[in-house]
Amino acid sequence: MQPAEALKLDRQLCFPLYAASNAVTKAYRPYLAPLGLTYPQYLVMLVLWEGDGVSLGQIGRRLKLDSGTLTPLVKRLEAAGLVKRARSREDERVLVVELTEAGRDLHARAQAVPLQLAAKLNMPPADFERLKADLENLIARLG
């Protein structure tokens, strides 16, 4: 491949990934708006719904986000009354994020979101699982 060919947009892996990420975020928007959540806030809530009382660092590792990105997200969720932040009793250097009652209640309403998105995608389950596995493999390779 010639160097000039290598720099064409349609030869890049990064662009379809970027465009797909934007498209997925946009596709979630109408399902998350009634919940009062942005897509990144939804991801934080997913982590907390799996296990409440998680450190900010653990959330960051799960979502592959740094604290500079994560802290404002959690602060907005706290301002919305969905989570509360507190220092760990074991180690006061650790900030723990816990769901409030409103945050726990939102879980029931959010359960429809994955089903709504799946219906919008209209993708066979095998294709969905294969795409997800390929993306997880790419993430692991990039590390």
Write up this protein:
By secondary structure, this protein is mainly α. It has a single domain (3-142), classed as Arc Repressor Mutant, subunit A. The protein contains eight helices and three strands. It has helices spanning 3-6, 14-32, 39-50, 56-63, 67-79, 101-110, 112-121, 125-142; strands spanning 54-55, 83-87, 95-99. The chain has a three-stranded antiparallel sheet. A hairpin with a 7-residue loop joins strand 2 and strand 3 (95-99). The protein is globular.
Per-chain topology:
Layout: H1 3-6, H2 14-32, H3 39-50, E1 54-55, H4 56-63, H5 67-79, E2 83-87, E3 95-99, H6 101-110, H7 112-121, H8 125-142
Helix pairs in contact: 2-7
Query: Looking at CATH, which topology would you report?
Result: Arc Repressor Mutant, subunit A
Main β-sheet description: 3 strands, antiparallel
Please give the alpha-carbon distance between the first and last residues: 27 Å
Strand content: 5-15%
Overall shape: globular
Overall structural domain count: 1
Order of helices and strands: HHHEHHEEHHH
Instruction: Provide the gyration radius in Å.
Output: 18 Å
Strand order of the largest sheet: 1-3-2
CATH superfamily: Winged helix-like DNA-binding domain superfamily/Winged helix DNA-binding domain
